[in-house]
Specification:
Blueprint (H helix, E strand, L loop, with lengths): L3 E8 L6 H15 L3 E5 L5 H11 L9 H25 L3 E5 L2 H11 L4 H12 L4 E8 L2 H11 L11 H17 L4 E5 L4 H17 L1
Parallel strand pairs: 1-3, 1-4, 2-3, 4-5
Bound molecules: thymidine-5'-phosphate (TMP).
Amino acid sequence: MKTAKGFISLEGIDGSGKSTQIDMLVRKLQSTGYEVVKLREPGGARISEQIREILLNPDFKGIMGDDTELLLYNAARAQVIAEIIRPALAAGKIVVADRFAWSTFAYQGYARGLGAEKVLRLTELTCGDCFPELTVVLDISVECSRTRTAKRGEAPDRLESEKTEFFERVRQGYLAAARDYGDCVVAVDAGRTPDEVFADLWNAVIKKLEG
Ligand code: TMP
């Protein structure tokens, strides 16, 4: 995979503390002097946000086909790359994405069972050389994820309403990515305090940016 300098993404199942860590990361990067563009996937651009609504709509549970899902995630990604990510990187900014292509690898490739090879082929088509130089996976057990998200008390979206086994497979997908693509994917134990997790995250980020 050809990677883009200054492009970082965070990954993890729900409840892994992704939002907290992203906010901490953006603040720290800014205070270090970097200009930062933060976005979420699917989303980050108007068209991508509209695709997100289709993807997460619980009414489509049991209706949306796995290939449709795969292609919609990639369509949302193609738009945000062209409209937001490429111009930001070209302007020398750091892009921090809340999820990116390793989500597709873990959720569609592993959990839906579409296979790593098919997903990576499509990823290459969608991203070209616009692929994160570093992805940090916030790794927690599915049990811990469930406990944390239950506390939020929000109605689950289409993906969140999947069964425990689905998220076990997502987790295995992420761990496989860190194992097989260690040059650009790092897994961090996210079952600790936010400050402990952030110390590892920051260490990985600064090593990559200044390396
Ligand atoms: P979130 O941004 O609230 O986490 O919602 C995005 C959901 O979409 C989440 O359940 C993970 C899922 N997802 C995929 O299945 N494939 C993908 O490629 C991406 C980016 C997200």
